[in-house]
Amino acid sequence: MGLLTIYWNFFMAVGLWRPIKWTGFKAILYNCYTFFVVLMNNLFFITGVMDIDFLHLDFFGSIDIITLMLQSIENFAKIFCLVKKRNDLLNFNIYLHSEPFDLRNEDEILIQKKYDDINRLVNFVCLTLGLLSTLWYTGFNAFQTSMPTVLPYRSKMSFNYSAPKIFWITAASQSYTVVTIGIVNTTFGVLFPSMMLQICAKIRLLQYRFNVIIEKLQETDDDSSIDKKSNENSGKYLIARWVESHIALLHLFKSANRLFAETVFIHYVINSFVMCTLTLLLSRSGFDISLVVNAFYFILKCVQQFGQCASAHQITVEFENLRHKIFSTNWYLVDVQVQKLLTIIMSNTVKDVIFVSGYFVDLSLDSFKKIMKLSYTIFNVID
Question: Which residues span the domain enclosing 100?
Answer without folding.
Answer: 2-382
